[in-house]
Amino acid sequence: MSTPPTAACLVVxxxxxxxxxxxxxEDPVNYPDIEANEMAAAARLFEELGQIPRATxxxxxxLGQSYxxxxxxxxxxxxxxxxxxxxxxxxxxxxxxRAAQAGSLLACEELAKYYEHQxxxxxxxxxxxxxxxDALTSTETTxxxxxxxKRELEHRLNRLKYKLDHA
Length: 167
Prior knowledge:
Blueprint: H1 7-26, H2 36-48, H3 52-63, H4 69-85, H5 89-101, H6 105-119, H7 122-135, H8 143-165
Helix pairs in contact: 2-3, 2-4, 3-4, 4-5, 5-6, 6-7, 7-8
């Protein structure tokens, strides 16, 4: 049977944790041994706090690393959303394209929306919608989520094909 930690031990542990968090948030890019999920979490925190330039820099850093697929996709989607919100489609498009290649359904959908509504290139919009539909078979989402995605994407595809036929 182990003895519970003393109050002094707990205080020292909490101080060390506070020190790590403080250093991580001060300069996450240069923080030694930062984990991928910590970098992405710091970017999300700054985004939620409204510190968009700092969040943007950290998301860009995440995309430049060899982070696991889900962290890469989430960081890509969030960075592209920041660019889209700022009206900077020139920056958002390549981020969405890389995320789409990594299996992001959201990125495929955003590219389809962009080509449909901004550029009015319905053929490109159809291609991105079809890419999303094709990716549904290899995605790691729940069956209800897959059903919802499929329904929305098929609706978009039918609308786009109608626009192509009547253009």
